[in-house]
Amino acid sequence: MKKLALALSVVAAMSSSVMAEGNAEVGKTKAIVCSACHGADGNSMIDMYPKLAGQHPAYLEKQLTEFRLAAKTGGAEGRMNPIMIGFAMGLSDEDIADLSAYFSSQVQAASNVADVPAAGEKLYKGGDTARGITACVACHGPEGKGASAAGFPMVGGQHANYIKIQLTQFRDGLRHNDLNGMMQDVAKKLSDADIEALSKYISSIKH
């Protein structure tokens, strides 16, 4: 909770920072190379790759910038992903802004999730005080829309498998580009069953 409070305290500063103004139409052309994994409109048909459609542009810019940073530093900084660093390493700030503007302007396709565990909804909405697990709703909201100004991504409707992969990576320390280490703090307390249940519930959220 202390890290959550600290993160929220920097919202004003983040909101006042100047982001590059992307051009969605230009980004559409640049996004052709992204379509094999993420779909032409940002709705990936492969569940290990995220849906980008409708995601906050600032969050997309952050991720692409950090993939590029990882490429330049050999993974010492930023977000390491063997596939994404290959694409991101040659992107300019303008490219990143245009791509982010395009994908954020698209509409996310709904997910079809069967057998959503009740435990997933319980953890998402209420957390687990006994284990020190903060409710996901605190940052990502009841509809999973997140908060752009605070840097919290939209997660509702995302592929369950992608969510599962990311939560596991946060838990295992393989991903560590989260704001103030908040996701790592939460994920390290989750069991495999927790992650499975949460992933399915989050994917089932409609907004």
Q: What is the element layout, followed by pairings?
A:
Layout: H1 2-9, H2 11-16, H3 24-30, H4 35-38, H5 57-73, H6 82-88, H7 93-104, H8 118-126, H9 137-140, H10 160-172, H11 182-187, H12 192-204
Helix pairs in contact: 3-7, 5-6, 5-7, 8-12, 10-12
- Relative helix content: 40-55%
Q: Whole-number average pLDDT?
A: 92
How far the N terminus sits from the C terminus, by CA atoms, comes to: 26 Å
Largest sheet: none
What series of H and E elements makes up the topology?
A: HHHHHHHHHHHH
Q: Total helix count?
A: 12
Proportion of beta-strand residues: under 5%
Query: Stretches where pLDDT falls below 50 for ≥5 residues?
Result: 5-18
Shape: globular
Number of strands: 0
State the secondary-structure class: mainly alpha
Over all CA atoms, what is the radius of gyration?
16 Å
Pfam family, one: Cytochrom_C
InterPro entries: Cyt_c-like_dom, Cyt_c-like_dom_sf, Cytochrome_c4-like, Cytochrome_c_Oxidase_Subunit
Subcellular location: Periplasm
Signal peptide: 1-20
